[in-house]
Design goal:
7 strands, alpha+beta, elongated, 10% strand, five-stranded mixed sheet, 460 residues, 2 domains, 13 helices
Length: 460
Amino acid sequence: MAFIDQALGFGTEHVRDDMMERQLKDYVSITARLIWQRQSIFFAATTLTAFYFDPARSIACYGAVLFTEVLDLILARRIREWTDHDPAKARRFMAWILANTALSAGAISLFVMVIALQQDVGGHFTPLFFLFAAALFAAMNNHQLVPALALRLTIYGATFFFITFLDIWRVNPPLSSELWLHFFTVVFVLYFIIDCSFMFLQLYRSRLRQLERLREEHARTLAAFEVKSQFVSVVSHELRTPLTSIKGSLDLLNSGALGPVPEAMAPLVDIATKNSARLSNLINDILDFQKIEAGEMTYNFDEVEISRLVTDAIEANRGYADSLGITIRGDLPAGDLVFVQGDESRLMQVMANIISNALKFSHEGGEVIVGYENLGAQVRVFVQDHGDGIPEEARKMVFDRFTQLDSSDQRKVGGTGLGMNISRQIVEQHDGQIDFVSETGIGTTFYVILDVHDPLAEDE
């Protein structure tokens, strides 16, 4: 055993407990999965030998084989249910597997020898072929546990030699006899089986090494992700604290509470105010993106009335629209109120992202229309601008992370390129859809489709 493990780079003393557990579970998984394949082979062999030889002996031998199969299934179930990762229990399972392997291989070998003993000298093609098939089946499917495979092949090898030596002992033929040819053929067959065993064993061990490397790489990736997440979170929060003070001071200065701003200073204060607002939005986007990536974004679902949501979104962005010289107006249909089940603050965030994009890409003096349409079981909220439109080839970029349609250094609008990606993920958490239609030179309409929620139906 040690030679095989060393040849493949797996010294027995260095095999880790988790590797042993993986091999045990792989072994019993294959054993359970191939149960009906083995049973069909055993039943066919029993039927064939019962017809040509003593049926009572054949059926008795099949019963012995079937008994070991039941033991295998019981052991497989216990190993599958094993979850405490106890190394001592792993060693006990290995001992039980080896014991049952000896019983199973012994029962199959007895079956073969019983057939051989009923035949004339030199006529052992059937039992030897059955034994060859059993050995090859083991080489292909029992390579997960080297001790079990070696034990099974050792018992089969001994049976091969017993059958061929039985004829030689009976007849004592010269070396030129076909009986000796049978013996040397058996040696060749055993070499072939051992070679196949090594091949399947190497393939399996190679797969285990790849899985181990993937597991280690996954662990390193998770660690790097955790470090990156902590770094982004700390930096973002540390930036937010002084930025809040800066923005508050600028807002206080702009309000005139400290007196009128000197004319020469006003443009600089205005630039600082706009850039502090941009930086605040950038930090908020990065923090939201970090929460989504880590699965920590929280949602508080409740009834949300769409008309009020659209109206509040318009009013929240009216000041920004006025600063750009763009008109923003609502298109709200008359009729019954429409409700959806959602997180109002997150849906407002989606509306803010879509509306601010529409405003940024509109021309001065233009108009942005925000409204909704009742589609019956669904409601379609839309934001329509009359800007340059989005080329069809850029469609995939719109909802990607850190991408902007105008990514040049001279672009007219700023941002992180995260807003629409964050919006898409928020909408998807509401089981909705977000998309757009656009025509170059005419404008773009972004829309969000959500399921309508009927509060009256819920009360009933």
